[in-house]
Structures are given as C-alpha cells and as structure tokens.
Write a structure and sequence with these properties.
single chain; about 525 residues; alpha+beta; Protocatechuate 4,5-dioxygenase, Chain B; Glycoprotein, Type 4 Pilin; 3 domains; 4-stranded antiparallel β-sheet; 17 helices; globular
Length: about 525
Amino acid sequence: MAAKNKTWIVFLCALAMLCVLNGTEELKTTRTYLATGNWYPPNAADLTSLLDQYFNRAQAKELPGKIVGLIGPHAGFSYSGQCMANAYKQLQNPSLAGNIERVILMGVSHSAGFYGAVVSSFDFDSTPLGSIPMDTGIAKELAREKFIRVDNRIIQYEHSIENHLPFLQRALKDKTFKVVPILFGALDKKDFKTMADAIKKYVDDKTLVIASTDLTHYGANFDYTPFKTDLEANLTKLDMGIINLITRLDFDDYYEYRRKTGITMCGFVPVGVLVELFADKAHKATLIDYYKSGDRNKDYTLSVSYASIIISETKGEKKNMTDTAIKEDESPAKLTKQEQNVLLRIARDTLDQYLENGALAKDLEKKYEISANLKVSAGVFVTLREKGDLRGCIGSIVGAEPLYLGVQANAVKSAVRDPRFLPVKKPELEDIDIEISVMTPLQRIEDYKKIRLGTDGVIIKKGYYQAVYLPQVATETGWNLGQFLGSLCQKAGLPSNSYLPSQNKGDEKMEFLIFQAQVFGEK
C-alpha cells in the first residue's frame, strides 16, 4: 500500500510540473541561425575576429543628433560587411546611441510570396555569438494589426534580418536589448503609411528601427540591364538617385523612382516603411557608405550595390519649404580637404584631356578616391579665372547626378560653353585657376530681408523670368542687399526694382530661393 501511495505521489508531482511548464512557465523557443550558405563564419571565434576587423576599419562620423534609425545591406559579409560596420560603428558612441532597449528589425522575404508582413512567436533569435531575446509582447500586438500575421517558418529561413544580428551584438555588446523582427512581402503604395502607423506605436526614445536592403542588382542573372555601357558611372547614378530620395525622407518621390527606373532594390518595402515612419518628425538621414560589388575587380556585368544610412533626430521642427528661416550657425555639408582636392584634380584633369582631344575620361572611380560624399547628388558650379578675371562659370543649383560627375561635366561647360566668353584654348590652361562651389538644397523664403549677403546664394523667379547669383558674388562686388537684388533682377531681364513688395501685388509674385555653398579652389 505504501509503495502504491509513493507511485501516486511521484505521478502527481510530475503532473504538477507539466502543468507549470504548459502554464505560466511555457517552454522557450529559439530561432536557430542559418547554417546554409556563406553569409558569415559559422563559429563564434571566426565571426568575432571578422567583426573586429570591420569595426576597427570603420570611422566614427559627426551626426546631427541621437540615432533612431539605420539602413544597411544583408549580403554575405565578405561583400557588404564593411558597409554594415561603418554604420553600426556609430552606435558605439553613447551620446548618439542613447539607451537602446528595443530594436525593430525590418527585412524582406526572398523566398516566400505574401502581402503585408509577418512576425514570429519565437522567444529568442540566435547567431554563433549567442541568443538575443525577442520582444514577444510587441510581436503579439503587431500580429493584431492589419496586414500583419505570425509565421515562424518564413522568419526561420530568411537571411535579410539575421545578417544584421551579429553587427547588433558587436555594436551593443554592453547593452541588454530585445529584437522585434518584421519580415515584409509585397505592399501597395497606400498601405505603406498603414504599416508605418502600426509600428510607430512601439517606437519610443529607447527604440532603434532598422531596415535591411541591398540596392541595385545588375546583370543578366538578375534580368536587369537597363544600360549596357559606362556601367560603373550609370550604376552609381542609378543608386545615388534613390539614396538621395531616402536621405530626403521623401516617400512619394522614392516610390515614383522605382516605378520609373525599375531599380532592383530588394528591400524597397521595409525602407519605404522606415521613410514613412520618420518623415513627419524632425529627422535627418545621413549617407554613411556606398559601394558596389563590382568595385573589387571593376567588372560590373554582374554587380550588387550596397549602402548604409543613419537616421538621426534633429533639434527643432523639420524644415518647411514654404518659409524657412535659416539659423546663423547653419552651413553647407562640409567636404574634407582631401575630398576637395579630389574634385579639383578631376576638374583640372578633365580640362587637360578635353582641350587636348575632345574626350571625357570614363571610369573615374578607378583613378580617383571617390568617397561616399562625392557620390551624393548635389548642385555644383565650376568657375574659371584667368589671371584673376572671370573666364567661365557654369553649373546647376540642384544636383541631377553624383557630385564628382557634376564637376567633370561643368568643368567642360565652363570652359567651352559659357556664352559670355570664347571657348578656352589649351595654352590658356596654365594661367587659369579653378574654383568649385558645392550647393546645399534650396530653401524658399517670403521675406527677402532674410538673405545673408556673402552667405546665401539667391535665385529669383517671376513668371518666365529667372536668375541666380552664387553667395560669393556679394563678397566680390561689395554690393549692399538692394544693389545685389537689383542687379539680379536685371540679369533676369526685369526692372531693377522688381524685388520690392510694391512691385509684387499681382498673380506673378517674385519667389526668393536661397542656398549656401562650400567654395574652394586651387588658390
């Protein structure tokens, strides 16, 4: 009888433990990392060593404020690892990273076709470096939102999220944080904001949002060959077109760009959701790094492009194009002395070659050290002076191509296409000095008295009439504001007093747009 009672006691204890496991203490589940493919080393020692190499080569950047978002690639680390590390390096600055406790990590499904997004019910994610707790509570809440559901299988076999995890573990190794993986499928334009609004509920000052994407996949294997010549320059131009729209946090133009170009950017949806997420607040996006897999051997017939971008908070409200008061301490994005020298060399070498044989050099990235800053589209003017006198000046206020290509094109235009002068001849070059002015984005103002002479360049528009002066014009002439604007009106073909309020009472009022410039030259 005693033996029978003992058996019952053991059974009841086991049953009680099972009830506990199935109740408040459920068994924990872990998403295992992918052991297939060559994404990264499969053991902790080799992976740690590789990450250390990438992070040791990465440089800390100056950013305008606390980091709230990050965009990075997800290819094999041998291709995109340095691009990733260059962005994640910035999270090691405590004043920029803040106290990150939650990471919302948005990827794209490469194998499953579905609409909307999926989350998982896993308790942990993992890499060879160890496990990372998932924020299961938020995942459950997200699964109740429109277009979002739970699907562990799709999450399990996708690398676009996983490939960011080792970089998070390396960058935030002294922090305790949870991840919320969200994997996206297809999404119509109207539903990007719906998705962003759903995620926004869980974004606080301790949350980092990441979007995972590679850029252009070029070549016959990707069924994408929109151009067949000048592959390096055309790929850069195509990539920088969408990068510039991302950094402007401009969703409508971002969406339209893919429709027009068909750009094969795999993470278009998660990046679009991130752009919508931060577009209505005071945020600034900064390009950290950009390159192409074809840069290795200069063979772009099969190439994938990679970029990393940081989204930061900025002080005050987001700027408004209707009437922007410029703060006194604002200035153009600064190019380093080395970057300035590269642009001046491109301009000088271009003129030497063009005036010699009428040809433009190709594959500039093979000859010069073209940094990420020089690949950003920006307005640029090239000014030529012969023994101190103006000899040509042509450029564009708004960038339509990467900066280094704009310098090359405008150097030639200033030399041979400025209608005010005869074309420059090769023997003149030894007496010509080159000056480059790199523009900031245009800002519209209502009150012309806000113009800062010597700091602001100005465009005036009235009906079909338009003219521009660079910032240095006021400094070089010594004009006061009235003389400056009066001359600008005459340049546009208008009476010199056309800028005054008394002359702007009809339907065609004068518009004032200002910009700044970083000006540097050979002298």
